[in-house]
């Protein structure tokens, strides 16, 4: 039986498609044959200086380090190679590699049809950008294919621990907000992308639903959350009960543990 929904999935900074697919194993099992989750790699391979523990300062003081623990073994296993959708140039004035990632997504979108997109952290910021760009494709002509958008606007976007990227490219993109139905998932105890930072992306979307969990920087994977996420992907307009509870969520999906710097503070990350 063919899946009735196809969803593009965008990993976080220093993860990759393989790592994130494994971390969303519970969600993949919950979706079964009803939702096809298509994981793709960010085009930029990260170097040691780009990973947590680097002395390179972050372009955003509100973001601590995340990084994937698996990256330490990337030399022995290429499937653990840390990747990103963008990095920052030395003077932090723009997101280096962002346009290359947009063009890579264009090539994915023109090859098949997707109902929606799900992104985590940097991937969530990028998912919202792609959703907005499909509404206003002529803002970036290289995104077009023979003068036409590569794909129709998406039916939904799910942004987990997302944020609005501080890059001039985003200003016209989010001017007047974007209208793709967007589920914003915010961790109340997220110290990587703090709630205030996630709210900047919420403010950029006009058709939104916000759900909070009491955990940190991960995709919540308690049973009620898995059912809710599957339900939303099947029908974003459905009147789904909130999965939020007063208890904390175990960080067993999309986990990103901050590392410690030499002075004991959380290291910073170039998101």
TrEMBL record:
Domain Serine hydrolase, first and last residues per copy: 5-227
Keywords: Hydrolase
Hydrolase in keyword set: yes
GO cellular component: cytoplasm; nucleus
Annotated Low complexity bias: 240-255
A Pfam family: FSH1
InterPro entries reported in the protein's UniProt record: AB_hydrolase_fold, FSH-like_dom, LovG
Region of interest: Disordered: 240-271
Name recorded for this polypeptide: Serine hydrolase (FSH1)
Organism: Lyophyllum shimeji
């Amino acid at each position: 039986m063919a899946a009735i929904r196809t969803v593009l999935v965008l990993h976080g900074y220093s993860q990759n498609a393989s790592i994130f697919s494994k971390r969303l194993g519970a969600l993949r099992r919950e979706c079964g044959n009803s939702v096809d989750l298509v994981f793709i790699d960010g085009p930029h391979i990260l170097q040691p200086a780009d990973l947590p523990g680097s002395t390179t300062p972050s372009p955003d003081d509100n973001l601590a380090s995340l990084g994937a623990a698996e990256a330490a073994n990337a030399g022995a296993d290429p499937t653990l190679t840390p990747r990103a959708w963008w990095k920052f140039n030395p003077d932090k004035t723009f997101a280096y590699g962002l346009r290359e990632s947009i063009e890579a997504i264009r090539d994915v979108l023109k090859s098949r049809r997707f109902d929606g997109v799900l992104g985590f952290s940097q991937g969530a910021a990028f998912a919202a950008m792609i959703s907005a760009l499909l509404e206003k494709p002529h803002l970036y002509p290289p995104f077009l294919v023979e003068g036409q958008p590569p794909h129709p606007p998406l039916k939904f976007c799910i942004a987990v621990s997302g944020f609005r990227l501080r890059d001039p490219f985003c200003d016209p993109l989010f001017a007047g907000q974007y209208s793709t139905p967007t589920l914003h998932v915010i961790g109340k105890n997220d110290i990587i992308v703090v709630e205030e930072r996630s709210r900047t992306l919420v403010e950029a979307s006009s058709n939104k639903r916000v759900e909070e969990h009491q955990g940190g920087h991960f995709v919540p994977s308690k049973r009620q959350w898995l059912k809710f996420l599957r339900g939303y992907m099947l029908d974003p307009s459905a009147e789904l009960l909130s999965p939020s509870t007063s208890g904390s969520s175990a960080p067993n999906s999309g986990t990103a543990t901050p590392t410690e710097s030499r002075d004991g503070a959380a290291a910073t990350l170039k998101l």
